[in-house]
Amino acid sequence: MDQVASNEEEVDLQTMSAMDQASAWESLNKLVPKVQAKLERILCYYQIPPQDAEDLVQDSVLTLLYKWEKIHSAEAWLLATLKRRCLMYWRSRRSRLTDAVDAAVLELLAEPGEPEQARSELSHDLERALGCLPARCQNLLRLRYGLGFKPAEVADQLGYRASSIRKVASRCLAALNRHLSAGGYDAKERLELTRRA
Q1: Among positive and negative, which fits the CA dihedral 60, 61, 66, 70?
Q2: Please, what's the b/e burial string for 116-125 (b: 16 or more CB within 10 A of its CB; e: otherwise)?
Q3: pLDDT of 63-109, one tens digit each?
Q4: Could you give phi then psi for residue 135, rounded to 5 degrees?
Q5: Does residue 61 register a pLDDT over 70?
Q6: Which of 109, 22, 33 is nearest to 75 (CA)?
Q7: Residue 142 to residue 185: CA distance in whole angstroms
Q8: CA distances (Å), 186 to each of 32, 101, 190, 191, in order?
């Protein structure tokens, strides 16, 4: 008898779960058109390219659906989640750009792979951009990439905590990237610089 009651309770829980999922889908189908204008404003504010905007919205909506039962205000949660995903989108894009400059610096300081004149010009441009940076950034980048010091060694030399050196190096590389951009290197040329160096 207990087994029959247990089976009936299990069937009831499955039925309730299926009903909850159906009501969640129904509520979600009503919510998205209602907040569509707000979603578009967020995407416009953060200047998300159209090809990536749809992915960010879909990720946010799917996460909302997954966490539906735990959320008190679906509209507020969806808008806040989309804002957060937009911020993360630009952070990852900046990180990729910084990594490209990072690779360019590393390869420029590595063995020569192209004619000496072109390498000399690139080296001059890089030195000029480095010269515009604060002294701490110049020292950090020269130690890290010019002399090949490890992050912990750079931290010891410059008096930083070893745990923060990556963040400081990232900021210095971003500043170097801005100076290279101001000096006439656009994103395409910086990528070519990375490939040629």
Answers
A1: positive
A2: eeeeeebeeb
A3: 988 888 888 898 999 999 999 999 988 888 776 666 666 666 656 55
A4: -55, -40
A5: yes
A6: 33
A7: 21
A8: 39, 12, 6, 9
